[in-house]
């Protein structure tokens, strides 16, 4: 059924970002399936025997990645970073995906157990992290890393040493790594250690055990410090960031019926800091600046926001907030800031200007807001480097810009009884080790087709490798409510581990519904891992869920697909090797409970099929189930056949994901907001 090839696990050097920020950790692997590969490009700053110290960077060639982190859908803003640096500003990819907010997106696995009784059981991310954290010995060489300056790499390392083509620029970060090259056979093109000196630019590939596979010396590469990007609004670390609030609150304050105005470059209308407890009610805030630059300082740290809370407790109610400034978020909570906002209206006009926004480990809780964003890479509900916590109850949240999903998630986000709409992007982008839970919510996405995307989707779970989200399990859970998909397929996951749960969700499919779920690698047009090795590991659970469409997977990915509690699927399972390179040891296992049904619409291929339910075609005919070895498990009268690696009528759905409850995440509305 599939070509097999031993795939390698990635070890991505962990680099600590500023306080509260996240660490880029190890990619996960399942069985022998590789999620992504690791390549480090940088300038050699010291050579000591067989040890070299490299300042990590990214090559400025390729398509733009977003600043600020949104989705990859649609066009990439002109000021976006190179995709080899980061995939999109907000997605730093999706605001990723074809639209992801990749500022962490364009704006696209960890605790997943992927339980199965077969030998193909996926490792959890925590297992992989423990393995990757152990220093290993090898006949070749080992690598260790040290972080300087407390910052994650700016962008991602290009793949395959392709940067050797002439006249490229290496954009350096503040992160250095030390490598021990104990075996010169890893040096490519007959090079020796004598050829590596201070100032040499190298491309280093690392295998799953942390060993150096190859070192390529790159020529015709100019080196540029990341500080040279300051004019474009990019920052090197939080220590380089300064705030300038027109009104600054550093002590306990209560204010009502006030108006605040900000017109300066990269300043905040209101800044709360130094542990102050601040209550603001019935206020008007106008943040307008044509000179502000936006970029990473805005997306990562909140520079230029209409309201910024970095170290206080902010209670905001009945406010009217407008922002017409690049990178000027409506309400931004950063670092140790805890923000509560209710019954307010927020409107932003420019690129990378989220509606409500958290980063750096902060928290933001919202009730009954009306939020609208209009720029590129500007999600209505947005998070970025360092993540944080958001709980949103009620309200409407609309993103109108290209690459601006309604929700760009690099944090832990819970939303209840809200209306989320993206008019020019996918509806949701989740990147890396982060979670989004939706309860009784209406979710609408309208991502445009774009030739730089492998497909078009409504919800994406992925890892852009931009450094803005820790590598790990992306988690999407939706209970009740409605999904409106206005273009393309529904769920797409690539270059990450992921869990998806749907429970009693009404789904309105687009006219060109290409797939219900796609779990595959990608062409790396946006820098999401290495082509042929950037598959996905997905556990999908349907609970009391009606579904229709194709389920697409490949051999460099793993899929455990559970149907429980009266769920039904009208569709087929397709092994599509388009993005799988030489293939891998992945699988697709399907588990059907006794009260669930699969209506088959075309010939299908799965590995392990556990069917305690009902399988027929659309005319009610029994579908033949035949083993790869020719064994006939079920002889049917349908024209369709399901080819399997193994077949059982046992109910194996006990390992399906449990359905969450909003009460487990709900936050009481503070009395200060009443």
TrEMBL record:
<dbReference type="InterPro" id="IPR012332">
    <property type="entry name" value="Autotransporter_pectin_lyase_C"/>
</dbReference>
<feature type="compositionally biased region" description="Basic and acidic residues">
    <location>
        <begin position="78"/>
        <end position="94"/>
    </location>
</feature>
<feature type="signal peptide">
    <location>
        <begin position="1"/>
        <end position="24"/>
    </location>
</feature>
<feature type="compositionally biased region" description="Low complexity">
    <location>
        <begin position="95"/>
        <end position="125"/>
    </location>
</feature>
<protein>
    <submittedName>
        <fullName>Uncharacterized protein</fullName>
    </submittedName>
</protein>
<dbReference type="InterPro" id="IPR011050">
    <property type="entry name" value="Pectin_lyase_fold/virulence"/>
</dbReference>
<feature type="compositionally biased region" description="Polar residues">
    <location>
        <begin position="240"/>
        <end position="264"/>
    </location>
</feature>
<feature type="compositionally biased region" description="Low complexity">
    <location>
        <begin position="141"/>
        <end position="157"/>
    </location>
</feature>
<feature type="region of interest" description="Disordered">
    <location>
        <begin position="223"/>
        <end position="265"/>
    </location>
</feature>
<feature type="region of interest" description="Disordered">
    <location>
        <begin position="645"/>
        <end position="674"/>
    </location>
</feature>
<keyword id="KW-0732">Signal</keyword>
<feature type="region of interest" description="Disordered">
    <location>
        <begin position="57"/>
        <end position="167"/>
    </location>
</feature>
<feature type="compositionally biased region" description="Polar residues">
    <location>
        <begin position="645"/>
        <end position="660"/>
    </location>
</feature>
<feature type="compositionally biased region" description="Low complexity">
    <location>
        <begin position="224"/>
        <end position="239"/>
    </location>
</feature>
